[in-house]
Amino acid sequence: MGADPFGTERLRAAVLRAWQDSPTRFTEDTNAERDLRVGAYRDRLFVELAQNAADAAQAGGKPGRVRVSVVDGELRFANTGAPLDGRGVESLASLRASGKERGSVGRFGVGFAAVVTVSDEPRVVSSTGSVAFSAGRTREASGRDGDVPVLRLPWPTDEVPPEGFDTEVRLPLRDAAAGETLLAALDREIPDLLLALPWLGEIEVDGRTWTRTGDEAVEISGPETTQRWLTHDGWAVPLAEDGTPLPLTEDVLHAPTPTDEALSLPARLIAPVPLEPSRRRVLPGAALTQALDTAAGSYVGLVRELPAEHRFALVPSVGFPRSTLDEQLREHVFAELATRPWLSTQDGGEVAGREAKVLDVDVPGLAPLLEDLVPGLVPAPKDAARTLKPVSAQPLTVQDVLGVLTGVDREPAWWHRLYAALAIGVDTHEVQPAQLDGLPVPLSDGRTLPGARGALLVDGSRELLELLSDVDVPGLRLVHPAAAHPLLERLGAKHAGARQLLEAEQVQFAVERSVEDVRSGLDGMNLAGAVLRLIAECGDDAPEWARALALPSEDGWRRADELVLPNSPLLEVFDPEVFEEDGALSVLDDEFAEDWAPATLEAVGVLDSFAVVRDEEPHEPGHGLPDEEAWWDSFEREPATVLAIRDLDLVADDAWPDALRLIAARPETWQALHVPDGHARWWLSRYALLAGEAPGSWRLRKAADLAGLYEEVPDLGLTDELLEAAGVRTTLDLATAEDVTDLLDRLGDPERTPSPGLAARAHRALVHSPVEVDELDAPTRVRAADASVADADTAVVLDVPWPASALPAARLVAAPEEPERLAELLDLPLASSLAGEVTSTGEYVAWADLAALRLVADQLGLELPDGGPLLHDVLTVTVDGATSEVPWWADQENRLHAADTSEGLARAFAWASGRWAERYRITALLDDPAPHTLLN
């Protein structure tokens, strides 16, 4: 090998001559290299060197090896393959020409310019000869200073590549400390380089090695991880260890190394497409369109390389494209997937996207059942219908599946498998039960029911079938046992056990119509027997509607809840008119009653004792209780619950003691009677009769404080607790206008002898009663303060204290509270409204001038009020034409008058100081101001 095997002296001379002949040529070369250094190739050093190494390996016909290291501040890139030749040197020294063949990587040949991004003195050392480039030597040779084109002037060098390698690029780094950083960056690029450059088999970096093996199934093994890729005609998709594809979401076009064209396809495209000289952007035009068509066609091949169940992962997602190229390429791929076969069908064939049908629900096991019913059906994973929409696949909704199944004739066991598959979809919420309305259901009689609602799942019970064999229940449909599945129950079918049959809508409908049907001529005995047997098997637990069951009675067929057992104690309690023809109740047929346990008959509403009505969420007064609306209206808010006793209005007037004992005998009626503000207690207190009188007309023995107004209840053999619950009085509580009217009558009855205290308490009860005046008639007689009866024309309500000293107690009605309210209720005037005239003469005296009062005020800690009374030796007033001597008075001008006595001064002072309750202590102190008066 000569000293200059590649004729670099000739190349230098030609360049220097060109620079000398055309100084602008030097500037152009300088600017062109600078543009490549700071622009197109600023971050592509290893990419370009790897491409050159791959070309060399391809030319050598053997996968190449690359070793990258940093030695003495030099970045060294060694590779195997075809060594450097003269044509290659010419290409290296040219910024515009390439010595590579058209089919090789990097056809423009300018990529080597990337070395000047890190070095001003690059060298290429090869087994056939070596060349060096130098910014310093170029300045010396050209006679120019400053920025010069490094790669235009090559010089020969006698260096040789390391053993085992054919070529090595040596780059003295401008920044010697940058070597480790460059190697670390290379670690991240190597897997992509090995994938994009199949002629590279191994890359070693600072003792760490990456290798590529395989052809279409490629493995790239590194020091820490192994990447697996499936490749086909320029496409590559990463694989998991088990071979499952790992679709990409963000990538760039590789041509074959990375460009700046962002892509969003699930696989990487590594294809020769028209690029700008920078290799960063594609060149638009017909050539690019052709390249994209070719790539899209190859994409279908990549998809078909995958197992059928994984192919859906490579359908590009719909969304905003990441670039114009991304949008174009995606459209080409969608078009190919829509028109070329690649989807495996349930029957083993293959169809294109537009020929495919895909279930729009993820229901495992459903597709195989539809194999021969839906041509082109593709078994697909969850959300495949949405995934395949861009390739024109037809989604099959649940409604579509039901349409396919309509009219299909299959064995019951096939339907069971279908229900099992759909049940999984319901459990996972892929299918809503409402969507399965109309799902065919095979019945035991050979018919097919369009929908499960109304069907009965008998579970093969012969006993239940026999039970219903003689009963005509329209619409009772039994599912074929081989097809029965729990899904049908979720869709509206009912189990045909005793409880489930009893709850069937058809049975309910038959029961609710049973009285009407029997009266129209149908035989009701079979239905009555069947329903009662079902109830007995359910532990005598019957639904509410069972009370409408037609049963035979003494006067024909009646609803069960209109019947009484033949030996019921109610027969002795209810009014006989109740049992007359067309009465409210009748008696159950004796012979029929003997065939059934009383508990079973009571479960359907036949009465043995009082029935209880229970409603935990009442909304309106519609429970069939007597006077229920009036009770309901007595509440400010609707009652939260209803627990009441039915048929109280049917009790005979003279049978109430027995009726109450009957109520107390059963826990459920006893509980209903004790509900606070409940209907039972409310109704009994108004309408029950005890010894011919309403309960509120009597008092209990323990309520002795009511004696004089209310008589003690006669001995009826009832406990005090039961009598009190029925409304017998223990207090003067008044709930209704009737209660108030009754008390007013008693107060005005001269035959009654209440004490003055009871009269006062009665008046307090009247004041606090919840009635309005317009609900009452004014009484003609009232009870005065001395407990005597006064005529309403002469009585007044005492609202201020001074008239009490001028009027007789027999005219005064005491009002412990709210005298105005009492006067309004009794239609009486107030005492303060009477015109009273002071007929004696008094002298004004200030309170402060009354020494005795000042001493009393000091003893009691009272402040003396302003002003003072008119003091009289003897104080007289005339009221209603009668003159009386009084201790004190307040005239129409609100002036206080007081007799010059302890009593008069004390009352006037107590009223003026607002301490009326202290009048007696003030009187005592005025009589005897000694301290012991307060202490005794």
Quick overview:
This protein has 936 residues and is α+β, with helices and mostly antiparallel strands. Helix content is 34%, strand content 16%.
Question: What keywords describe this structure?
Answer:
about 950 residues; alpha+beta; four-stranded mixed beta sheet; elongated
Explain how this protein is built.
The protein contains 33 helices and 43 strands. It has a 12-stranded mixed β-sheet. Strands 38-39-43-42 form a 4-stranded mixed β-sheet, covered by helices on one side. Strands 18-17-19 form a 3-stranded parallel β-sheet. It is elongated, with a radius of gyration of 56 Å. The model is unreliable at 97-108 (pLDDT under 50).
Q: Assign the CATH architecture of the domain at 8-209.
A: 2-Layer Sandwich
What's the tally of helices? 33
CATH top level assignment of the domain at 8-209: Alpha Beta
Structural class: alpha+beta
Strand tally? 43
What percentage of amino acids are in beta strands? 15-25%
Can you tell me the CATH topology of the domain at 8-209? Heat Shock Protein 90
Strand order of the largest sheet: 5-4-3-6-2-1-7-8-9-10-11-14
**Full CATH superfamily name of the domain at 8-209:** Histidine kinase-like ATPase, C-terminal domain
- The percentage helix is 25-40%
Question: Which of globular, elongated, flat, extended, rod-shaped describes the shape?
Answer: elongated
Which ranges are low-confidence, i.e. pLDDT below 50, for 5 or more consecutive residues? 97-108
Radius of gyration based on Cα positions: 56 Å
The main pleated sheet reads as: 12 strands, mixed
Q: Give the mean pLDDT.
A: 89
Instruction: Give the termini distance in whole angstroms.
Output: 146 Å
